[in-house]
Amino acid sequence: MKTALSLVLTASALSACGAPQATTPEATMEPTNAQKAVALLNSIETGDTSAVAYINPEQYTQHNLAVADGLAGFGEVLAALPEGSAKVSVQRVLTDGDYVITHTEYDFFGPKVGFDIFRFEDGLIVEHWDNLQELVAETASGRTQIDGPTEVTDLELTEANKALVKGFVADVLMGGSPEKITQYIHPDNYAQHNPAVGDGLAALGAAMKAMAEAGTPMVYEKNHAVFGEGNFVLTVSEGVFLGQPTSFYDLFRIDGGKIVEHWDAIETIPPRDEWKNDNGKFGFPGME
Predict the structure, then answer these.
(1) What class has domain 2-135?
(2) Residues 126/119, Cβ–Cβ less than 8 Å
């Protein structure tokens, strides 16, 4: 694939010359880390090789276990895509310190929705994590897995909202004090984007009960990270679903001190002998 080859060749050239900072034709000032992350994702569709300059070619740690480490692994995946098949539509972008989190609809070896997390050092991407899930045609709530509000607001409430969601994960999802659920989720206004769960607390409770009765409970065992900006908070957790080791990425929107909306991507963690890198699925510097 010509685009993938160009990206790999560009990456090699950047490595040889010390990875100069890239600038976009329409901007004269240095792009933000969020803009760089979005440009890199968009390059999967457009083939814009300049976006590769936002990756540190000498230090790019990959946590997608189906992709080999470094820029070579990135190029290898792009080369496997059928020509012109990739589509990328970034819907939400959050910045939390050195991390940028994106929520994206893809056509990437088939229609998918996913979260990408990029860690930056000195303006360059040095580490990447993600969770991808296939898109479905119909959901229990009638919403899609990606639609809904996108604007980041209430920046002054970032830390309070992160604390709220961290408590929800510990008390409800991990079973510490599940009876506290109404302290976290708005009882009359809870929009759900998980394809198997309807809107509202009653639907959530019914879905969790049905999974438990079927012997396939969704078990959260460890919360690895909580990222947030304003009214949006993303948690990254590890556990078991359908009897398989699983990575849970949950995005929450908070309004008035309560969780009012939820999106997620759930991905099975492959067996160790299938990993294409040795970096693991988790491990967030400064977060764990």
Answers:
(1) alpha beta
(2) yes
Helix, coil or strand: residue 1: coil
- At position 190, the amino acid (one-letter code) is Y
- In this structure, the number of other CB atoms found within 10 A of the CB of residue 70 comes to 19
8 Å CB contact between 268 and 198: no
pLDDT digits (tens, 9 = 90+) for 47-70: 888 999 999 999 999 999 999 999
Q: Are strands 258-268 and 191-192 parallel, antiparallel or unpaired?
A: parallel
Whole-angstrom distance, CA of residue 267 vs CA of residue 172:
20
pLDDT of 233 over the 70 cut: yes
DSSP 200-229: HHHHHHHHHHHHHHTT---EEEEEEEEEEE
The torsion defined by the Cα of 182, 187, 192 and 197, in degrees rounded to 10, comes to: 80
Q: Which residue has the tokens 């976009």?
A: 24
CATH 3.10.450.50 spans which residues of the chain?
Answer: 2-135, 155-272
Q: For the segment 77-93, what is each residue's pLDDT rounded down to a tens digit?
A: 988 888 889 999 999 99
Q: Which fold has domain 155-272?
A: Nuclear Transport Factor 2; Chain: A, (3.10.450)
